[in-house]
Amino acid sequence: LARHNGSVIRITRDGAVPRDNPFVGQDGAQPEIWSYGHRNPQGLGFDGRGQLWAVEHGAQGGDEVNRIEKGANYGWPVISYGEHYSGAKIGEGTSKPGMEQPVFYWDPSNAPSDIVFLEGGRWDGDALVGSLKFNYIARLSGTPMREVEQLESEATLRVRDVDQGPDGAIWFLSEVNGTLYRASRP
User: Fold this and answer.
1) Is 100:66 a contact under the CB 8 Å cutoff?
2) Of 65, 138, 72, 62, the residue nearest 100 (C-alpha)
3) With 60 as the cut, is the pLDDT of residue 23 above it?
4) Fewer CB within 10 Å of terminal CB in the chain, N or C?
5) Cα–Cα distance measured from residue 131 to residue 62, given in angstroms and rounded to the nearest whole number
């Protein structure tokens, strides 16, 4: 908590620290920290209820979807579902008291890039997550959350960003094609 590394921080629009942040006044802690123990968040998104979520790169295996909670420790590098690229073990295993579990994780890694929660239509409440490795957009749904579909085409090469427009259409950026695409609402 002494550094911002591996943290989601929360500040006001003018850069001030909100008084209700979880570590305000704690000796040695950065007051901007909202949650910590994150390896490499790539995208953040709010669901329809205003809950913040993150997609994070693991090491080899263990890319995660996390529901971000005030003051929570997500475990990196103590717990992980991945391993070092050398094949060596990371930390102490996959769980430990006081550390959050991912809501969903990929193994093998799909290199998630961004997350958006859809509003309206038949996929209302589902999440879309771009993949930088396997060239698709993952559709996540259910409780527990699981990958229910892989949306892929010649357009979905290294999907960097995914969003939903005001008309319900899905927009995504392909790095390989250098193109912004618009897909009709499902």
Assistant:
1) yes
2) 72
3) yes
4) C
5) 14
CA distance 157 to 131: 8
CB 139 within 8 A of CB 170: no
CB atoms within 10 A of CB 18: 12
pLDDT of residue 42: 95
Contact between 112 and 65 under an 8 Å Cβ cutoff? The reply is yes
Task: Please give the structure tokens belonging to residue 135.
Answer: 């060239």
Strands (E), the chain: 7-9, 33-36, 41-46, 52-56, 63-67, 104-106, 112-117, 127-131, 137-141, 146-151, 159-164, 170-174, 179-183
Interstrand relation of 127-131 and 112-117 (parallel, antiparallel or unpaired): antiparallel
Over residues 59-114, the pLDDT tens digits come to: 899 999 999 999 999 999 999 999 999 999 999 999 999 999 999 999 999 999 99
**Does the N-terminal peptide bond of residue 108 adopt cis geometry, omega within 30 degrees of 0?**
yes
Give the pLDDT band (50/70/90) at residue 184: confident
Write down all domains in the chain, each with its CATH number in brackets. Answer: 39-183 (2.120.10.30)
Please tell me what DSSP assigns to residue 39: S
Distance between the two ends of the chain, CA-based, in angstroms? 42
